[in-house]
Design brief:
Length: 391
């Protein structure tokens, strides 16, 4: 193209110069010099504009070719449609690229947050896991303790049942063989048999009660009773038993604190069950107090620290016995629990008495607790709320 234009230009310039020369000769010949000058001016001007038009045409041509190839890189003063499109494409691509990188950064940020959350969740799960392991270990230990206690109980019960039965058998055979010939001897053996039968009866009753408590079938015959009268009647009932064990027994009357005596000392309770609680506590006191000791039975009235608007009857059994070691105190109400430190013990029990007492008191919406000093004595107290609390 360049060559074609160059040769056309050459032809055009040659023609123009030839025309000027011809016009010059003709004007000298004819004498029309002004016409020659005018024509020469037109030719020069024509040449000048031809140069501009030529350059314009050349740029246009190159632009079209380059943009059609997609390599528009020259500085052309007039932008073609393809150039404009290409520039727009570049802008869109740049914008797209920048928005893509922003999105990628956002995604990375989100991923980092997710990873942190995942780590936290993992730590939390590990915590829960170790807590669960601790619970499982504790439960397993508790289960093992309970199994061991049950095994102990079966061994104890077998022993406790067999011992009195063997003795009863021996005493009965003595009577049948006529070895105890005098009425005094016979009475003595009958009393021994009676004591063993009572012991057996108590043990069987405890097992029966525990079975009922464990299956939640403890039924209470609730009725309004005077707390003072209830405590006094129990004292009178067990006074002889306690004295038989060479122990002195005293009733601590609530009247000794008149300012703390309520207007109405009625409680709602099952008197037979409350007697059972007293009986279990007294049996323990008799068992753990050496002859010559004292047992106190009584009731007093106090406002409950947890609910001062309520007044409770506090029933207690106190002894001057061998006491309970501090390390044993938290366990005495556990089923089958028997203190390993019980040197002064006169009889072996089943380890159920206090557990049963606690179940009965709890069923009456009461509380039971123990205070004890080793070798000095023990006090068991249980509280039952008054029906009409006012002093
Ligand atoms: N008054 C008390 N004095 C000393 N120890 C007591 C007294 N009462 C209870 N204990 C201790 O609490 C344990 C649990 O009592 P309990 O449940 O009645 O079972 P048990 O009398 O059959 O052994 C007893 O074995 C004993 O070690
Ligand atoms: Mg007991």
């Amino acid at each position: 193209m360049n060559e074609t234009i160059t040769s056309s230009q050459f032809v055009f310039v040659t023609i123009a110069v030839t025309a000027l020369v011809v016009l010059g000769i003709w004007s000298m010949w004819t004498g029309y010099y002004w016409l020659t000058a005018f024509m020469a001016g037109i030719l020069v001007t024509g040449l000048f504009f031809t140069r501009i038009l030529y350059n314009l045409a050349r740029h246009l041509y190159t632009g079209v070719i380059e943009s059609s190839k997609g390599t528009l890189e020259f500085s052309f003063p007039y932008k073609s449609h393809a150039q404009q499109e290409s520039a727009r494409l570049r802008q869109v691509t740049a914008a797209h690229n920048s928005s893509s990188s922003q999105q990628a950064a956002k995604k990375i940020q989100e991923l980092e947050i997710m990873l942190k959350e995942h780590d936290l969740l993992n730590e939390h799960l590990q915590d829960i896991n170790s807590q669960l392991e601790m619970v499982v270990t504790e439960r397993t230990a508790a289960l093992e303790r309970s199994h061991a206690a049950r095994r102990n109980l079966i061994a104890n019960i077998s022993h406790d049942l067999r011992t009195p039965i063997t003795l009863i058998q021996g005493y009965t055979e003595t009577l049948l063989d006529g070895i105890a010939s005098t009425p005094e001897d016979q009475l003595k053996y009958l009393n021994l048999i009676h004591a063993r039968v009572l012991r057996l009866n108590r043990l069987i009753q405890e097992l029966f009660d525990l079975n009922q408590l464990e299956s939640g079938q403890l039924s209470l015959r609730i009725q309004p009773v005077s707390a003072t009268n209830l405590a006094r009647s129990i004292y009178e009932k067990y006074e002889t038993d306690t004295q038989n064990a060479n122990l002195s027994v005293k009733f601590i009357s609530p009247d000794s604190e008149p300012q703390l005596y309520p207007k109405d000392d009625t409680i709602y309770a099952d008197p037979d069950r409350i007697e059972r609680v007293f009986s279990n506590l007294l049996t323990n006191s008799i068992r753990h107090t050496m002859p010559g000791g004292t047992i106190y039975i009584g009731v007093r009235f106090r406002r409950l620290p947890s609910a001062p608007e309520k007044i409770a009857a506090l029933f207690f059994v106190q002894d001057t016995g061998d006491g309970i070691a501090e390390e044993d105190l938290p366990f005495v109400f556990n089923r089958y629990y028997q203190s390993p430190h019980r040197d002064g013990c006169k009889h072996s029990g089943s380890g159920l008495g206090l557990a049963i007492a606690k179940e009965i008191v709890t069923a009456h919406n009461g509380q039971i607790w123990v205070e004890s000093q080793l070798h000095e004595g023990t006090t068991f107290t249980f509280s039952l709320p008054l029906a009409a609390p006012s002093f």
